[in-house]
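Researcher: Here's a chain I'd like modeled. Treat it as a single chain, no partners, no ligands.
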Amino acid sequence: MIKFPISNFWNEMLNLQTEVERVFTGYSDRREFAYPATNIKTDEDSVHVTAQIPGFTKEELNIQVEGQILEISGEKKESKDENTTWQQKERRISKFVRKFRIPVEVAAESTEAKLENGILTLTLPVKEESKAKKITIQGSK
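Model: Modeled as a single isolated chain. Structure tokens:
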């Protein structure tokens, strides 16, 4: 009889379900497992994105905008040291990709990106043609 640690088994099943959802839908509703944790808000002129990405440098990150899809990805590679024997290794070598549908078309070439203390901050200006416009009503009083 094979014994599985129950908590590990169910965690792995949830991880598998999340990955299958991502493959078929491009995103997952399981926000508690999403990495990096991200907030997106909009105002009249911009879309503002903040993402918690501790331990990554700006050289290890990639940001792309195509239409209304924002993609944030990163990869941290392990340095090789032949003279090292790990006694404990809990920090994983990380690679991630997150895609978000943003609510308006943005001017990707004018995007501002900043990484400070593990927080990535993006300001994506809304394209002029995507901004709300006031319509004047014609006719009698």
